[in-house]
Amino acid sequence: MYNDWINKIKYYYRSGTEGVKIIYIFIISSFVYWIFNFILMNLTGFSLEPVIFLSADKFIPYIWTLFTFPIVQKNLWDLFFAMIMLYFTEKIFRIYFNGNSFIKFFVLGNIFGGIIFLLYSLLTGYTYIFLNGAIVGIYSVLFAVISYNPKMPVSLFPLPVQFPIYVLGIIFIVLDAFSTLSSSSLTMNVFIARIAAAAFGFFYMKSFQTGNDFLGKIVPNFNTFYKIFSFIKVRIFSSKNRKKEKFQYQSTKSGVHTNKNFNENKIENQKKIDAILDKISKYGYENLTKEEKEFLFNSSKKL
């Protein structure tokens, strides 16, 4: 039963969109951070915040925090709210564009917002404030859609009415501004980072929709990583089976024909797997047929 549960999680991850995969990664990374940070704080008094979260005061030597700050949410409520926003924002974005474009706007928005956060912190002297969470990148994606089709109808639960998506963007900015001015939970540094990411998504979409994706090349193709990972798993799987087949052949002569047929089947399966991986690389996982997804899933279960 435990293995079935794990296999279902793995299947939903593999069959999910880029946004769903990010949600899986962010949930796991957040829980890992909470656990290890709690242990270290209680045993040594050392916090992982400067190592993961972005701040101008700790940016040197922790320069990688410009890329790691989005993957961890500080508490469970922030994680829940961010993942809900990420899920629905990606669904809206993918009405017009593919998953790789979503990754570009999300990653580039986080980087741009992080850079503006650092500059603002240095200029104002508030260098000790930390930036974390995926909201910065989500704002970039949301306002990219607003730039592309500002009158797209959306609804906000639990309101029973629809309104243009640009109104949703205004609502989020007003709520953030109110939170910043009331000094309840959002600092001006973080607010500026979100506004910067929103502006990046809005204006970069103007260039992107004309075919000028001049920054997109610095963001790796998500499907490339998936193909490499799948290729490694398949090769390991094939290596294990070759060793198993060799042992079976040496242990009994009666199994010669069986092993030969078994090996032929494996060759055919390998060709089919390679063809599926090529299709993923060219068109994305979501464009696989149901049979192809099930075949790839069943092959990975045998690892």
Automatic annotation (TrEMBL):
<keyword id="KW-1133">Transmembrane helix</keyword>
<feature type="transmembrane region" description="Helical">
    <location>
        <begin position="101"/>
        <end position="123"/>
    </location>
</feature>
<keyword id="KW-0812">Transmembrane</keyword>
<feature type="domain" description="Peptidase S54 rhomboid">
    <location>
        <begin position="63"/>
        <end position="204"/>
    </location>
</feature>
<dbReference type="InterPro" id="IPR022764">
    <property type="entry name" value="Peptidase_S54_rhomboid_dom"/>
</dbReference>
<protein>
    <submittedName>
        <fullName>Uncharacterized protein</fullName>
    </submittedName>
</protein>
<feature type="transmembrane region" description="Helical">
    <location>
        <begin position="129"/>
        <end position="149"/>
    </location>
</feature>
<feature type="transmembrane region" description="Helical">
    <location>
        <begin position="63"/>
        <end position="89"/>
    </location>
</feature>
<feature type="transmembrane region" description="Helical">
    <location>
        <begin position="161"/>
        <end position="180"/>
    </location>
</feature>
<feature type="domain" description="DUF6576">
    <location>
        <begin position="260"/>
        <end position="302"/>
    </location>
</feature>
<dbReference type="GO" id="GO:0016020">
    <property type="term" value="C:membrane"/>
</dbReference>
<feature type="transmembrane region" description="Helical">
    <location>
        <begin position="21"/>
        <end position="43"/>
    </location>
</feature>
<dbReference type="InterPro" id="IPR046483">
    <property type="entry name" value="DUF6576"/>
</dbReference>
<dbReference type="GO" id="GO:0004252">
    <property type="term" value="F:serine-type endopeptidase activity"/>
</dbReference>
<dbReference type="InterPro" id="IPR035952">
    <property type="entry name" value="Rhomboid-like_sf"/>
</dbReference>
<keyword id="KW-0472">Membrane</keyword>
<dbReference type="Pfam" id="PF01694">
    <property type="entry name" value="Rhomboid"/>
</dbReference>
<feature type="transmembrane region" description="Helical">
    <location>
        <begin position="186"/>
        <end position="205"/>
    </location>
</feature>
<dbReference type="Pfam" id="PF20216">
    <property type="entry name" value="DUF6576"/>
</dbReference>
